[in-house]
Amino acid sequence: MSAAEIKTNTDQKMQKSLESLKSSLAKIRSGRANPGILEHIHVDYYGNPTPLSQVASLGLADARTINVQPFEKTMVAAVEKAIRDSDLGLNPASQGTVIRVPMPALTEERRRELTKVVKSEGEDTKIAVRNLRRDANEHLKRLTKDKEISEDEERRATDEIQKMTDKAVVDIDKIIVEKEKEIMTV
Asked: According to CATH, what is the number of the domain 35-102?
């Protein structure tokens, strides 16, 4: 594996870490309706656990309400039950073929707890990015030791990996600040 491949591989893994952070933060309720928080819910569809997005269309009715419209009328009860039984603490209400999921307002205390969770997620992602940097640097040192790349190449690649790490950390901080702001907005 060359230094360029190591850099490319590390960059891809860092981007995956950022995407993972974004998806995990999307599941954190902020008081504002976001269909993304229902994505991980599975519905019992004729005996098979199926993602909610495959059995119903998700949309926003207003800033605090998500509309869930099952593709089959017979699935309304199952979808409603799956949402109610999820760990999100939501209380869906069925209106014919449409299920309305109101997002309850968050208390100040709950908002503060959620910001702590967000910070923790961000810190975990930063640790993952730093571990990727460490692994890449170790790999580069091995290549230098085995005389596959020169010390200058190693130094250049290490500097570039450090720049990628710094950029990823800045991106993580931006994402965290944005989510905290979203949570704290009443």
From this structure: 3.30.1360.40
